[in-house]
Amino acid sequence: MRMTLVPILALVVAPTASAQLLVPESTNDDVMMFDAFDGSLISLQYLDMNISTGATPSTPQELIFAPNGDILISDQVANRVFRYSNDGSTYIGETTTPLSNVRGIESAYGSIWVANAGTSGGAPGNAIVQLDLGLNLVQVFPLAFAPWDLQIDRRGGVDGLLVTDLSGHNIQFFDPANPATTLMVHDSDGVTGIDFPQYMRFRESNGNLLVAGFSPPSGVYEYEPVTGNQLNFVDTVGLFNIGGLRSVHELGNGNLLISGPGVHVYDPIVGTLSTIVPVVAARAITKVTGASIGTNYCAAAVNSTGSAASMSASGSAAVASNNLVLAAGNLPLNAFGFFLTSLAQGFIANPGGSQGNLCLSGSIGRYVGFGQVQNSGAAGAISLAVDLTQHPTPSGFVSVQVGETWNFTAWYRDSFGGSATSNFADGLEISFN
Length: 433
Description:
Blueprint: E1 19-25, E2 30-35, E3 41-48, E4 60-65, E5 71-75, E6 80-84, E7 91-94, E8 102-108, E9 111-116, E10 127-131, E11 137-142, E12 147-155, E13 158-165, E14 170-174, E15 183-186, E16 195-202, E17 209-215, E18 219-223, E19 230-234, H1 236-240, E20 247-250, E21 256-267, E22 272-281, E23 286-289, E24 295-297, E25 310-315, E26 324-329, E27 336-342, E28 344-349, E29 357-361, E30 365-366, E31 374-375, E32 382-386, E33 391-393, E34 396-398, E35 405-416, E36 419-424, E37 427-431
């Protein structure tokens, strides 16, 4: 029986500036970044996989972080795993182990695990390939089915991996210590249940397992994590004419971020779907914790949404990388706004008749150049990739220097009592290195 996905509202958490979602897309071979609380777009190109001529990406699938912080990206058609620096600014290298038709990738139990399905170039066919942290071959575990995604799981006191079974349309449990036998977690007929299961993620609110179904009946499936029983199904084709789903992730506000043909946010309370990024072939969604840059300070005033706007930043605080993205969330919908910056912090209540608190003082620069004034749109958020060599001040542009600490906030249009006004986000302090 198909049901509408219903979140447990009591467990929805407050937004945090330290969590983002990274999503590879194979249209341009880039990695996009989204806010993990509301799904708003932070950057269309957090990482350009073509940053070096040494990298030859083709169809990136999933991004994970190695234990040392390096970014690893599996590529289905390039038949390898690419390695980049933590901030995405530098291509480091790639696997030389024979791999083919590479799908999911996971870092667990001191190793890197890769879902392999092809045989070209001496690759092992349907198998889970274990690599060491240097991406060298450790062991190959042949499978009787075609694996797609891998997720850390513990079942019956055993540490292992959940595996989406593409050929059988099932979800199975793989124990590296007992690789000859896999345990069936969910057995689908591929007709009334999930067909072509791709990436899966555990819900943070209740621990249930969310899986993206690619082929008809395409949609979002929710399973009880122990028994594997299907609990809910969101028919994205019938409701929104969107099929071919790749991945799904629960957002901090209880909505779902969905990838496939584009990236969308599904609101299970009102049953609506908002398109965040159209067209691109978006793949697996990976949550990044602790990736935010800077320290928030100063209290922002509540705006017409009933929340206070919050600042965050991602990318790198390294001046040499020049890879910093500013973001402001919890803004009124379809409101214009822009970012402000200063070397000095401050607190000025209701400046110029605003309803907000300005968390800067001294010489304040404004990001109001071409394309820098943003509209918050349906997500209620704005973001801007800034050029540290063109940092605005009242007397002109300067280059940010190593050792400097700059402060940032956002000004935006708001309303109060039915009258137009303005407001500010909180402050964000960033020390550059």
